[in-house]
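Notebook entry, structure prediction.
Reason for the run: the old model in the group folder had no record of what sequence produced it. Starting over properly, with the input documented here first.
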Amino acid sequence: VQLQASGGGLVQAGDSLRLSCTASGGTFSRYSMAWFRQAPGKEREFVAAINWSGVSTYYDDHNDSTKGRVTISRDNAKNTVYLQIVSLKPEDTAVYFCAAGANPLYGSSWYDYWGQGTLVTVSS
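New structure, fully documented this time:
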């Protein structure tokens, strides 16, 4: 499975952004999907995950920096998973990666396929 992330760019604090990740080369609906992000000088962190059907979504409720501001969704007909981020903050600046795996788990090691990442830069 090949994953292509897009939608990043330079935005202002307070703006909203929707990232997309389109899959090819496999049966998209078989996979759970997730978004991770990696800020400069920091470790990659889990942002959100969604199961194969889109019925169940998972967020890091312990991460106050993203809690309540991100929404993951998917469209299996378009082989695409989305990440909506609202009220963007400078600390949201990171490379955002999409990933595919068998289950919507929090650890990055559970995901078998990764996109190349899309850079989001939030200016204050």
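Summary: DSSP finds no helices and eleven strands in the chain.
The old model has been moved to the deprecated folder.
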